[in-house]
Specification:
Strand order of the largest sheet: 1-2-3-4-5-6-7-8
Radius of gyration: 15 Å
Number of helices: 3
Shape: globular
Largest sheet: 8 strands, antiparallel, barrel
Helix content: 10-25%
Distance between the termini: 25 Å
CATH superfamily: Calycin beta-barrel core domain
Order of helices and strands: HHEEEEEEEEHE
CATH topology: Lipocalin
Length: about 170
């Protein structure tokens, strides 16, 4: 537990300190539509999700305008072990609704930039301006390969190196 907390602290600190070339984000986000469960289809390697699979992120809008965040994944090393992280997200500037902040340990917060969002909120591409963190998210456990490739192209065109992208195992039947 302490190790996971330390990893999240380091991650948030890195996200909040790193800056890079500006990263374009979506111009409009309906948080009510964005809310709910998302499956992590792929990601750039990071320390806080190492050895995890079947990763999901669940977003719940709160009455105070914040968004509750629940990330969870299953260990590939210890069968049945679930790793969870609960935090909050918010939009610091209404003029840029695709640029959220997320915090798992206050007062540290990292960038959560929605780079691409399907008009029906079925899949999304999320990253940060340092280009060190990137996620492909979907409402379903499997994302059509043509959509996946489209999102890879968007990521590449925005300066992300997708050569080390990890596809996340979402298979629940093992």
């Amino acid at each position: 537990m302490v190790k996971n907390l330390l990893i999240f602290l380091i991650m948030i600190n890195l996200l909040s300190c790193k800056s890079g070339k500006d990263l374009p984000t979506v111009a409009k986000v309906d948080i009510e539509k964005y809310a709910g469960k998302w499956y992590e289809i792929a990601r750039l390697p990071n320390s806080f999700e190492k050895n995890l699979e079947r990763i999901t992120a669940t977003y719940t809008p709160k009455s105070d305008g914040n968004i509750e965040v629940l990330n969870q994944g299953f260990s590939t090393e210890i069968k049945g072990k679930v790793s969870k992280a609960k935090g909050k997200a918010w939009i610091p500037n209404a003029d840029f609704p695709g640029r959220l902040k997320v915090s798992f340990f206050w007062p540290f917060a990292g960038n959560y930039y929605i780079i691409f969002l399907d008009e029906n909120y079925k899949y999304a591409l999320v990253g940060d301006p340092s280009r060190k963190y990137l996620w492909i998210l979907s409402r379903t456990q499997i994302l059509d390969e043509s959509i996946f490739n489209k999102l890879l192209e968007v990521a590449t065109n925005n300066g992300f190196d997708v050569a080390t992208l990890i596809k996340v195992n979402q298979n629940i039947d093992y």
